[in-house]
Specification:
Layout (H helix, E strand, L loop, with lengths): L6 E3 L5 H13 L13 E2 L5 H10 L4 E6 L5 E9 L4 E9 L8 H15 L4 E7 L3 H9 L3 E8 L9 E2 L5 E8 L1
Parallel strand pairs: 5-6
Antiparallel strand pairs: 1-3, 2-8, 3-4, 4-5, 6-9, 7-9
């Protein structure tokens, strides 16, 4: 990836495509599945209704879309200013059929730059503890476990149906 990645605020008309790509990347199994599919949870990762609800609840959040020079959608990411110079990063999603091109790494770097340009000093995220391969991927990019954890929202089916009774999130963070 030699060209500079430009992230654009998502338009409302793009929400269905964002939902479809997120569910493909996070939950779809089979030959075109992502290397990091969330096999511990069944059902959709996001719906258009939950995406709209989350955006309405967090007006400071940035839902950003990445397109290449041919206007092909390659991925998207959620960035949200938090406390004390930290920004929350979530929904980092790239096309599973193009993941062998290091798109995730490129999108992560662009998202960090976007947040940094707006005053972020650190990026923070949560990852399900049992997703060891994904956590290792973030650790290779400089993210560290903070020691903090967060419970999995078992009482909220908006994120799918958990298939394991022992899920929880670890908090990862990286200084910019």
């Amino acid at each position: 990836m030699s060209e500079r990645i430009v992230l654009h605020p998502a338009k409302e008309a793009e929400y269905p495509q964002i939902v479809a790509l997120t569910n493909w990347a996070f939950r779809q199994t089979g030959p075109q599945a992502s290397w990091n599919v969330e096999a511990l949870i069944a059902g959709d990762r996001v719906t258009e209704a939950t995406l709209r609800e989350d955006l309405a609840k967090t007006p400071a959040a940035h839902l950003l879309v990445w397109r290449d020079s041919d206007d092909e959608r390659l991925g998207h990411v959620w960035l949200e200013p938090a406390d004390h110079g930290a920004w929350y990063l979530g929904l980092l999603t790239v096309r599973p059929d193009r993941q062998d091109q290091k798109l995730g790494r490129a999108l992560l770097t662009a998202a960090e730059g976007y947040a940094c340009e707006r005053g972020a000093q650190r990026i923070r995220m949560t990852v399900i503890d049992q997703r060891h391969t994904l956590i290792a991927w973030y650790e290779r990019r400089g993210y560290l476990r903070t020691g903090d954890t967060q419970p999995f929202p078992y009482d909220d089916d908006r994120f799918g149906t958990p298939l394991s009774p022992d899920l929880f999130f670890v908090v990862l963070e990286r200084a910019l």
